Amino acid sequence: MRAEPQSFDRVLSSMCTEPHEAAREAAERFLATNPGDPATYPAIADMEGEVVDALGQIASLSDPHGFVASGGTEGNIQAVRAARECSTARNPNVVAPETVHFSVRKAADVLDVELRTTPVDGDYRADPEAIEAATDENTAAIVAVAGSTEYGRVDPIPALGDVATDAGAMLHVDAAWGGFVLPFTDYEWDFDVAAVDTLAMDPHKLGQAAIPAGGFLAREQATVDALAVETPYLESATQATLTGTRSGAGVASAMAAIEALWPEGYRETYERQQELADWLAEELAALGLDVVEPSLPLVTANLDPTLFDALREAGWRVSRTATGELRVVCMPHVTRELLEAFLDDVRALRPRAAVAADD
Amino acid sequence: MRAEPQSFDRVLSSMCTEPHEAAREAAERFLATNPGDPATYPAIADMEGEVVDALGQIASLSDPHGFVASGGTEGNIQAVRAARECSTARNPNVVAPETVHFSVRKAADVLDVELRTTPVDGDYRADPEAIEAATDENTAAIVAVAGSTEYGRVDPIPALGDVATDAGAMLHVDAAWGGFVLPFTDYEWDFDVAAVDTLAMDPHKLGQAAIPAGGFLAREQATVDALAVETPYLESATQATLTGTRSGAGVASAMAAIEALWPEGYRETYERQQELADWLAEELAALGLDVVEPSLPLVTANLDPTLFDALREAGWRVSRTATGELRVVCMPHVTRELLEAFLDDVRALRPRAAVAADD
């Protein structure tokens, strides 16, 4: 095999990153394990329970239920699926702000559930009144975002919890990206401060574990039980995950990363990356760009499409929001030096892009 | 982290195994890659296309479409989902032999599709007449098994393809476990000899790749397109996989294993493991057990439940069929020496178990 993996030295578009050294080591050591078959692979199955406990601690849930998922998409699918199963509605629906991750649309499609999206407020956050207006007696769940993919915004989770409670619906929080930095902010996002039923938070994103390591947490065991199917020939009774054979490398890697980094390592990472994001936002604004003030380590700014293309041609892995804005995710591999080189290229390519656009 | 992974020296219950050395090396090298985001991780995304081409070659499909899935469960879910999407029936159903893997039941549950299971023939294989009798105008797919989990049986795929064609339904073949040994047998199982629409075959099982590496193949691009959802902020148009962020380690590992082993390495492995399975079946029969003659490297035999428990207590990772039979999967890590030690323990523990059962 001649191919080489990409390096991270120009990656500004990913919500994943280089795993922590301890996480990489654990992934390699547990490569040939499958927590989906606990009777054959008991060590990694036990460790999965420990990861769920640790995730519960981070999300302020003292007696957590759940599992290590393949990622945020599975977390969101399983949350909607559990809500569908627990609902008595014949045609259950799910209500979410329009800023919800596209995996929730995928979940609705897969599960054949109606998804109702609502406009956000002037700061890209869910509007509880709009959410409430969209709910009805068939609403099985409200999905809120704690760290949105495009703007890094945190929805007003406690208010959405109240709306969900009044509607008799479950509240799912998608903290797939934000979960490992939110504990160090003033945002209200977790099981302790709101009527959250389920929550997705991914060790393989800001948790600095190796892919695949997502986290699915539930306040009640009954929610997980709603997902369970019977499992002959596994010497275990049921399986609540969407996938069958699963990556023990992901589980071990999540455990190793959390052991190495929670809480102080994650706090330091958050503070460093947030400072970088704030600085980048100022620098881009100084260049005359229309910048969305970052609330988490993610910067979004209006950028000429020709300049965007020129940056990609220059090797920068950048991506766009649905409306075409530049999106820079300040993951742990992103350094001041990296962003300075990026800004140099923005400055250097800007005139040329402007000329090309005039052609 | 003090925990250690299990060793494989007493594992007879798993359809996974130690990855091939080249597969392990590739998994470690591509640990921090995500083929789910091709604009950021182009090398691994390109490699995924090469893996699909290689899987197509193994399954006799010259222009294959599909992707590397998280495993056989995703392959089966996506096959049923594609059939549901392509069906014009209001309440589509899926017909499968009762020997189908439990992930097809999970798929039906997740996708809210009716699953109709039919009795098998005297040799644990799908009965085309029973399958045909269960189909109607709402049948979206027939699911066949090429290497069943409990008995290693191969359904009569060409006949089932005819039934599917007549019913206007898709035919999905679950070769998740069998796909990497069937090319060396006389069984008719692949795209070339039957009207197969989709097929699951997992590099992370007999393909000797690292977990997670499943394979989902489709004859037509339209089948994959039926699964696609739009993907903002990924600089790629759509995503047909069930999961979002995905393991590049699995993809690279699959490629490395196939490069190292296809076809001669897989052929040698098949011949060695089949010979072992045949020998084990004879030895168990000589001990008076009621043995199901192996058709692939998997041996099933009636065993006293007390003896089964005693073997598990002695450290053997064995598992049971739904009706309680002992099931031994002769994966590549299973050697003659390992099976001799197992048989020694069967002989040694048998009298004691018999006594305990009489208590």
Low-confidence stretches of chain A: none
Oligomer: homodimer
Order of helices and strands of chain A: HHEHEHEHEHEEEHEEHHEEHEEH
Shape of chain A: globular
The strand order across the widest sheet of chain A is: 1-7-6-5-4-2-3
Portion in helices of chain A? 25-40%
Q: Give the C-alpha Rg of chain A.
A: 21 Å
What's the overall average pLDDT of chain A, rounded?
A: 96
Number of strands of chain A: 13
How far apart are the termini of chain A? 43 Å
Derived structural class of chain A: alpha/beta
Greatest chain-chain contact: A-B, 86 and 86 residues
How many helical elements of chain A?
Answer: 11
- Largest sheet, strands/sense/barrel of chain A: 7 strands, mixed
Beta percentage of chain A is: 5-15%
Can you characterise this structure?
The structure is a homodimer of 359-residue chains. Chain A starts with 20 loop residues before the first helix and ends with a helix. Chain A has eleven helices and 13 strands. In chain A, 40% of the residues lie in helices and 14% in strands. The first copy, chain A, is of the alpha/beta class and 359 residues long. In chain A, a hairpin with a 5-residue loop joins strand 10 and strand 11. The mean pLDDT of chain A is 96. Chain A has helices at 21-29, 42-58, 72-86, 102-111, 128-134, 157-167, 221-225, 248-261, 264-286, 305-313, 336-358; strands at residues 65-69, 93-97, 114-118, 139-145, 170-174, 198-200, 214-218, 229-230, 238-239, 291-292, 298-301, 319-320, 326-329. At the A-B interface, helix 1, helix 2, helix 3, helix 4 and strand 8 of A face helix 1, helix 2, helix 3, helix 4 and strand 8 of B.
